[in-house]
Amino acid sequence: MSTPAVQDTVTGELGRRRRLLVLAICCASIVVVVMDISIVNTALPAIRQDLNASVSGLQWTVDAYTLVLAGFLLLAGSTADRFGRKRIFQVGLAVFGLGSLLCGLAPSIGWLIAARALQAVGGTMLNPVAMAIVATTFPDPAERARAIGVFGSMSGLSLALGPILGGALVDGIGWRSVFWINVPIVAAAIGCTRLFVPESRAPRARRFDPVGQLLVVLVLTGVVSAIIESHASGWTSPLVLGLLAVAALAVLGILAYEPRRADPLLDLRLFRSMPFSGAILMALFALCGFGAFLFVTPQYLQDVRGMSALAAGLSLLPVGVLIIALSPVTGWLVGARGPRLPLLVAGAALALGGLASTWIGPATPLPAVLATYLLFGVFLGAVNPPITNTAVSGMPRSMAGVAAATASVGRQTGTTLGVAIAGTIMGSSAAAGGAAFTGAATGVWWLLLGLGAGIVVLALVSTGARALGSARRVAGLVEERAL
Q1: What are the distances in angstroms from CA 11 to CA 2, 35, 140?
Q2: Taking a C-beta distance cutoff of 8 angstroms, is the pair 374, 322 a contact?
Q3: Tens digit of pLDDT for each residue in 11-53?
Q4: Are 240 and 198 in contact (CB under 8 A)?
Q5: How far is CA 14 from CA 11, 85, 137, 140, 196, in A?
Q6: pLDDT for 120-177, tens place per residue?
Q7: Which residues of 413-440 are buried (b: 16+ CB within 10 A; e: fewer)?
Q8: What's the burial of 196, exposed, middle or buried (CB within 10 Å: 0-12/13-18/19+)?
């Protein structure tokens, strides 16, 4: 019987054509998972009308998905390392497909939210596991780097395609089709995975940390639920205060429990590294801003300007094109000159985009609106590669995967918070349309300006000589304890 180490080595013997086929299968999985973050935003107005959904219902339609992704990414990665990446990947595809089917059949907003959560359970088994499969399938470092670059670019492509494909499906078939389209893609991916993807496991799988997992979920759920429910219940209501108290107690539990674990779910030692801590905060800020932008913008285009869903999706095409075009350039720039310049550009673009958006009203000329959206495309195209680079900067190879995965959790958490905060700021004005909508949206744009300024400050702090010194000290501490 092959050992886990030998099983990993076997993947290096695959022919080039089969390796590329494995990469294509993994890319298909990341496309459907990431696209389901952006594609749903275009369908929100139709969902609200058909299911008579409230603003909080729309928030949970998005956040039930991103919240589960954020809460269980680390668990899914360690589970795949232990039980086999191919096996967990197939299970993830099946659960994601089932969740997508149930989303399309949902008779009410409550059922839709529950199905979105199930969909995300499958999604957690796809994103980090697919990355691990790609990494083990391409043993040559240069070839592996190119494959990971292609895999990573699929996120930008998915975000670009989501609003356009979603608009076309909503106008042509109805909002339920944005979920049903996943089913044949997933079915084909399951069959191809069974035939072509080799099994692999980590030489030493990390131990399960169920207490740490529960505490992380309580923190995320408590904070997000409190923000969403604060509009209807008020910040001083027993419900909201109780949710915040649960989150605070869970944070204290993490601080007390995780340092005592040999294999903690969340290794708190990493946060002593200024580049790592800065990267997590920048990931949180960046995707919080973009999540808020994607929540507000399709509703503005459809409910205020009266566009069709397809026209609204096409209006976001420049954003997607810039993401696709700038991501590889940014990756090259990070490799050549480091992450500071791209991060400064990204933060400035987000801040300027937020500031420019405060002047958008119901009758603002469409070319001016689209020009403003270009700033958000520059922002997202420039921010993702340097965040990952900063997170793993100075880390030993044994911790690079954990650092990158934690940055992914920061991104998903940011998206979740962005939708929750934007919906709370908009309140009932989200369904009012006209000047009431754009007036309420001003608060969201000021938030984005602040988040962009925060990224600029963090970029300066986390990429200097002092910051890199802290990363080296953390790396030395980790390696010393591992001996």
Answers
A1: 13, 29, 11
A2: yes
A3: 445 677 888 888 888 888 888 888 887 788 888 888 988 998 8
A4: no
A5: 6, 17, 8, 12, 10
A6: 899 888 877 787 787 778 777 667 666 766 776 677 677 767 888 888 888 888 889 9
A7: bbbbbbbbbbbbbbbebbbebeebbbeb
A8: middle
